[in-house]
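Dear support,

I submitted the protein below through the web form. The confirmation email said the job was done, but the results page showed an empty box. After a refresh the structure appeared. I'm attaching both so you can tell me whether what I see now is the final result or a partial one.
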Amino acid sequence: MASQTITLTTLPNLPTPTLRVFPAGSDTQVTGSPFSLSEVPTAKGRYAVTFTGTLTGDHECFVYSGAAQVTSGWATLVNGDGSYDVRGQRQVQVDANSTAAVADRVLGRNLAGGSDGGRTVRDAIRPGRNKVTFNNDGTFDVYDETDSVIAWSGTYARGAASLGPLTTTDPS
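What the results page shows now:
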């Protein structure tokens, strides 16, 4: 069999970099894997390995530095001129229901991160699109998307004159 070359780009100056390659749907590495990678001297972060064999189709590729995994991704390896280029993630079709569910989850995330609920992304954007009323008692109400149900309330303060500009808002 002829010698083949796989090239990829990742973090520069990795100590003892290796590439583990698995055919799609398999937990068995291809023959010769893991491959020892050599950084291309004139292109920091660009690595190459030459091996004997032929690879075609989708493969999951894992780059390690010693025992630590650095990155992974899907690659379609096509034997054109005897070289393979690991270009990135395999494309995955996502249906509209899945993307809508992701968007809904993002809107419900806490602005501080790490949880759902509380001060959410949805609540943060509501004043820019939905009804907001300022009451004479120093409170305001931000409505949900129906403009009839209060989503959250807060307090405000005016400037020196009683009809001065709003100076602060404080969500409660």
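Response: this is the final, complete result; the empty box was a page-load delay. Helices lie at 96-107, 121-129.
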